[in-house]
Amino acid sequence: MDSRDNAERRPSPDDLLREAQQVEQGRLKIFLGAAPGVGKTYEMLTTARAKKAEGTDVVAGIAETHDRKETEALLQGLEIVPRRTISYRDHALNEMDLDAILARRPSLVLVDELAHTNAPESRHPKRYMDVEELLAAGIDVYTTLNIQHVESLNDIVAGITNIRVRETVPDSIVDRADDIELVDLTPEDLIARLNEGKVYVPDQAERAIKHFFSPGNLTALRELALRRTAQRVDAQMVDYMRAHRIEGSWPASERVLVLVYSAQGGNTVVRHAKRMADRLRAQWTAIHVETPAAARASEAERDKIAQTLRLAQRLGATAMSIPGQDEALTVTEYAQSNYFAHIIAAKSERPRWRDFVSESLTQRLIRAAGDASVHIIPRTKSPPRNPAGLEARARKPRRMEVKAYIASLAYVAAATSVGALLRQTLGVSNVAQLFLIAVLASAATYGLWASLFACLVSVLSYNFFFLPPLYTFTIADPENVVALFIYTVVALIASNVAARVRAKRSRRGRGHASPRNSIFSAASSQASRRSMICSGPPRIKLP
Question: What is the rounded average pLDDT for all residues in the chain?
């Protein structure tokens, strides 16, 4: 047991290999800011000077000071690699000399403005590609980036500022960064720097404050930068825990996982998970497990589950569907491998007596959850769609119930009459089959409760009219007691099965009553499958 536990706690080979590859390559540090002028280049140069004082071989590949005296002063004492001049359409363009830096092979190179587009005749069209080549050569890189240049946030930034940013950096570059340092400045301080002429010249600063640099825009961009940095730090922590096989969840990571496993009440559980994630300021995921039983679900139930997953996506969650044999084990294994601190599920709806036979899904979740907290949410009943017709529908089942019992009694009476006529020919044991036919007819026609009534009456009638001594409810022969008991059990099972078949056929008939409804259902199922396949990245919700 101990050796197996030690083997399970060993670091993951894939993660260790990834760490070894990162050691062979250079390290990337990004100085991330919410907007121009927050001091990214200034902070990068300050950190580089400290590294040089420690003895690190530092060179400045390219640093844009924008004629700011305090920034230019920080370049004093740092080795600067001369830029390469490229002639393009009678213009001289100065670009970073990538080949000169590779030939120099410093320990650390400073590369400002990661999202910059290179001149047409450069080896790479984008500066981040130059950085990738430097990292592949084993050279550490310090670089700067504004949040509006991150590719996945391009649409969000455009919606905030009404300005479409053309120069973007793939998210993979940000995700591979070994360190991200957020250079934060309040909107009031940044606007004060603009007014003082430390970012743009006065005319440009005035226009910038009215448009891009409005307090609302700066606040929203600042939140984007904070969240993107926190997202990367959280991913780094998960990678570290996975590489070193650290079990459980750390208090620093709050992740919420909600299980969508039933068509009924799924929206309620998803909304509860959204509220909890907002309170914890945590990432959350909605998951559905495709078990063999789920694969046999009806088309309507599968569409409902797909709609619930799409609702989770609209609310900001990551929605997914994964295969598995057991929902509880699959969910808990996924939660433990991805370090979720909270698991949310709906309360199981089944008879209480089944808890004595087998554990419910929620009980298995609690038992296998490990260090994660399990939250069980009660389901909400859907309100009736036509409250005005409740009284009419309440009266109709009462009339149908009386009719069903009368008809069931008639079935048993008919079986008794036929059995009395054929008693001498069939024998007492075969007469019981006639009563069984009456019970099945009642179940197929009127449902479970009517068939149970028919079963009771048929047992009494069979005993009274056909088992000796006749015309009494006394049974003289012990063999007849056993036969009557077996008949009762068979009649109960047969009536239950026939009632279920009738109920399923009735629901199927209502579902296909209108060709128009069936067309809409098919279109909805196709849309659900397309949505599950084409799920995009999670969106960031701004206050």
Answer: 78
Q: Up-side HSE of residue 90: CA atoms within 13 Å toward CB? A: 0
Residues 6+ apart with CB under 8 A from 115: 126, 127, 128, 145, 146, 149, 167, 168, 169
For residue range 318-377, what is the model confidence (pLDDT) as tens digits?
Answer: 898 888 888 889 998 888 888 788 999 988 777 776 777 788 888 888 888 888 889 988
pLDDT, residue 303, reads 86
**What pTM was estimated for this model as a whole?**
0.50
What confidence score (pLDDT) does residue 7 get?
43
- pLDDT surpassing 90 at residue 114: yes
List CB contacts of 142: < 8 A, sequence separation 6 or more. 29, 31, 44, 47, 48, 108, 109, 110, 111
Q: What is the CA radius of gyration of the chain?
A: 36
Residues 6 or more apart whose Cβ sits within 8 Å of residue 540: 153, 156, 224, 227, 316
**Secondary element (H or E) of residue 438:** helix 428-446
What amino acid is encoded at 56 in this protein?
Answer: T
Give the mean pLDDT of 40-54: 94
Please report how many Cα atoms fall inside a 13 Å half-sphere around the Cα of residue 481, on the Cβ side.
5
Q: Which of 273, 329, 330, 266 is nearest to 301 (CA)?
A: 266
Longest dimension (CA), the chain: 120
393 pLDDT more than 50: no
- For the segment 381-391, the average pLDDT, to the nearest whole number, is 48
Give the pLDDT confidence score for residue 521 in this predicted structure: 37
H/E element holding 130? helix 127-136
Q: Where does 162-298 have alpha helices with state H?
A: 171-176, 187-195, 202-210, 215-243, 266-280, 292-295
**Tokens linked to 352:** 């209480």
342-346 and 255-259: which strand pairing? parallel
Q: Is the pLDDT of residue 116 over 90?
A: yes
Tell me the C-alpha to C-alpha distance, in Å, between residue 73 and each of 111, 197, 252.
Answer: 17, 18, 39
DSSP state of 387: G
Which residues does 254 contact at the CB level (< 8 Å), separation at least 6? 280, 281, 282, 341, 342
Helix (H) or strand (E) holding 85: strand 84-88
Q: What is the DSSP string of 265-282?
A: THHHHHHHHHHHHHHHT-
**Token duo for residue 426:** 């069939």
Q: Give, for 490, the enclosing helix (H) or strand (E).
A: helix 478-511
Phi, psi of 346 (to 5 degrees): -85, 150
Q: Which of 166, 91, 158, 154 is nearest to 125 (CA)?
A: 166
Cα atoms in the Cβ-side hemisphere of radius 13 Å centred on 510: 6
Confidence of residue 4 (pLDDT cuts 50, 70, 90): very low
